[in-house]
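Contributing new complexes? Match this layout with 2-deoxy-2-amino glucitol-6-phosphate.
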Amino acid sequence: MCGIVGYVGDRKKTVGVLLDGLTRLEYRGYDSSGIALMDDGRPRVFKSTGKLENLKKKIAKHPLEGLLGIGHTRWATHGDSTEKNAHPHVSAGTSVVHNGIIENYSELKEELIRKGFKFYSDTDTEVLAHLIESCCGGDLSFEDGVREAFRRVEGSYAVAVISDRAPDKVIATRRFSPLIVATGDHENYLASDVPAILPYCRNVIFLEDGDVAVLDKNSVTITDIDGGPVKRDVQTINWDPVSVEKCGYRHFMIKEIHEQPQAVLDTMRGRFSEETGEIFFEGFEGSPYKDINRIMALACGTSYHASLIGKYMIETIARVPVQVEIASEFRYRNPILDKQTLAIAVSQSGETADTSEALHEARAGGAKTLSITNVLMSKIARDAERVIYTHAGPEIGVASTKAFTTQLLVFYLLSVYLGRVKKQIDREKAAELIRDAIRLPQLMQMTLRLDDEIKDLAKEFFHYRNFLYLGRGISYPVAFEGALKLKEVSYIHAEGYAAGEMKHGPIALIDDEMPVVLIAPNDGITYRKILGNLQEVRARRGKIIFLTSDTTPEELRGSVDRVIEIPACNYLLSPLISVIPLQLLAYHIAVLKGTDVDQPRNLAKVVTVE
Ligand code: AGP
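Output block (do not edit by hand):
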C-alpha cells in the first residue's frame, strides 16, 4: 500500500513530476498525500487529507519550484487519515516518505523520546525521520547516517529521504516494499512502480532488498546497507505511456475491461506453436515439472478466483491434482509439502503480502515454486524459482479485470504444457486446444459489444440491495468473481455460490427483492442441472438474469427476467467470456450509484499488509 515518488533535476519540473507521479500511483492508496521540496537548501512540506486533488488545489495556491523533492500517497495503517499522519514526516531539516510497516517502531520511539525528539503523528514512519536525524550527528555524512539508521529498522519499507544536510540529493532504500530508480538526462527519478515514471523515461533499475540509492541530478549510486558498491542492471521498459492514461474512457475500470482482447493477445503472443502443439515459457527448458504430482495455487481475491478456474483447467487437461489455497490462511495450518509439489503464487501486483508469505512457506517446505504475475521484477516474481508474466499492461482500476482474464489464459497454456509433459494429451489435442485459445480475442471483442445492453440492465437493477451469483462447474468461481466485482465497486452486498449449494441454505434468501445472476454457458456438462436451479429460483419469485451461450433459450424466456447471450467457446475457456458481462454489470451499476469506481472506499490496489 502507499505510493512514493522522488525527483531531482530541473527545478521548474519538480512539482509537476511529483504530482503527476502520485496521480499514477494513487491506485496504491488514497487517504491523504503530501510532498516535500528542497529549494535554497531548505525543505518545504505540503500535505492534505483525502484525494490527491485536495493536495493539488492546495499547491496551486503557491507557485512552487524546487531542485528536488519527494511525495507520498497514503493508505493508512498506523494512525487515521488526518493531515498530521500524512507523509512526508519531518525531523528538523529531514523529510521522509515511506511505504511499508516498521515493526520495531515502539521501541525506537521510546528511545527517541528519551533522547528528546518530539512526535507529532500516530504513524510508525515518523520514527524514521527522527532516527535518521539522531544518527546523523557527529562525523557521519548524511548518507552514512541514513545507512546507520536503517541497520536498526525492522519491518518492510520503501523510503525516500531529503535533508538540508545534503540539499542536492534524494536518498532511498528498500526492504520488502518495491522501489525503482529511473535515469534521465541530467535528472533522476524514484517511484514505487513503473507507471509513475513512464511519461518521462524508460530506463529503470529495480532496487533490491537492502539497496541504498543516492540520487543527484547527474548520477545514481547504489550501495548495500554497509556502503559497499552494488551493481544493478538498467532495464528498458517498453510499456506504452497511453496505457496509464484513461484515453477518453470515463474510468480506468471500463478502459481495462475493453482492453481484455488485446491483453489476452499480448499474453499468448510467442508462447505456443499451433503446428506442433508446443508451449513455450521462459525458464522452462529441461522440463522442470515432469516429476511433480500435485499443485498448490496460492492467491487472494480475484487471483484466488482465477486459481479456482485454473484448477479445472489443469485437472481436466493434465490430470495433475490441484489444491487452491487462500494465501492468508495457508501458512497458519502447517501445510504438507514436498519436492513433488509445485506451489504457484498468483498475483496481479506481485506484491500482495499474504501471497508472498504463502510462497515463502511453500518454498521453506521444499516445494518447487512458480509465480504468475503481471508486474515485472515484482517481489513475488523474484521470490519464486520461475515466473510466467501476464502481459496485461498496467492495471490501474482497483477492481481487477484484465489481470483476471490474462491469469486464466496463463493457467490454460500451463495446462496444455503440463498435459504434454505428463503425456495426458497428444500433439494434435494440444494444437486443437491452442487453436481454441487463438479465437479468444475475437470472442471477447464480440462479448464487449454487450456493453450497451448491460448498461440498460444496470438501470433496471441498480437499486437492489442484495445479489446472488450462481454457477456450476467451471462457472462457479466465475460466480464468486462476479459477486466480488459488484461488492467492491458498487458497495452492494453480493454472494457467489455453487448453484448446487443453493438448496443447502442460500435458497432461504430468495424472494422478489433478490436478483439472481445465473452463469450458464452451455457446456453440455452442467447446463441441464443449472436449468433446474433456475426453476428453483423462479418458484420463489427471485429475479433472474440468465447468462448463457445457448443459442435457443426461447423456452426459457418466460422463466427469466433477462437473458444475456454470450458467444459459445471451449468449455475450459468459457470463464474468460462469461466474466465480461459481470464486470460490465458491476461497472455500470457502480456508475449509476455514483461510487468512486476506480478507487472504491477502504480498498487499495496493492495489499502489502497481512
Ligand atoms: C480484485 O478486484 C481485488 N481488488 C483484490 O481482490 C485483488 O485481486 C487481491 O487483493 C489480490 O491482489 P493481487 O492479485 O495483486 O495479489
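Reviewers usually confirm one structural detail per submission. For this one: The mean pLDDT is 92.
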